[in-house]
Amino acid sequence: MPDIQLHESWKAPLLPEFSSDYMAALRQFLVAEKAAGKTIYPKGSEWFRALDLTPLDKVRVVILGQDPYHGPDQAHGLCFSVKPGVRPPPSLLNIYKELESDLGLTRPKHGFLEHWARQGVLLLNSVLTVEMAKAASHSQKGWERFTDAVIRLVNAKPDPVVFLLWGSYAQKKAAFVDSSRHLVLKAAHPSPLSAYNGFLGCRHFSQTNAFLEKHGQPPIDWSLPDVV
Length: 228
Fold this sequence. Notes:
228 residues, Uracil-DNA Glycosylase, subunit E, two-stranded antiparallel ribbon, Ura-DNA_Glyclase_AS
């Protein structure tokens, strides 16, 4: 694996994962894929970007994705987010539609979600790498076990956290989250294939902020400033 770039708060609790046999096997798989000339997204320095931008002790909201975007210049380590200058994908446009409907926010002109991550929104994909143009090509290679460990660490936090689980995959992934302590909000996936089956109109963003404020935390600023 490349030099691991993630916030210090995650390193000690995740050390057993990084030193495990399954992670060694995952590392060998990724090295072999690159040696075979395959293009992997995102770049190695961004595999753990979500954990670098959002320290464990600062996590207030978790949004779970499946695997990274597999098109050129899209993925950069945060689920649903794309780099500045890249057209927002359809699922993200539906997220923006819901933000507009729920909170009255003007739709951003970009799809770069780092502003959320820096406020404590952990934008975590279940699988952290993908081969170019091949969705889910790195599933069942070990990443799911690693990100389960991440979710368990967040679940163990003493402060309540909001989990936004969109679609059946995310809901199964976080089935062990303690809903007696945390707020677990479920809806259909924002994909155009399912958004009209319960994502649009779910009002998850206002519910998230109401829960945070109820527990003495500042709300998330879901608006996205322009990027240069």
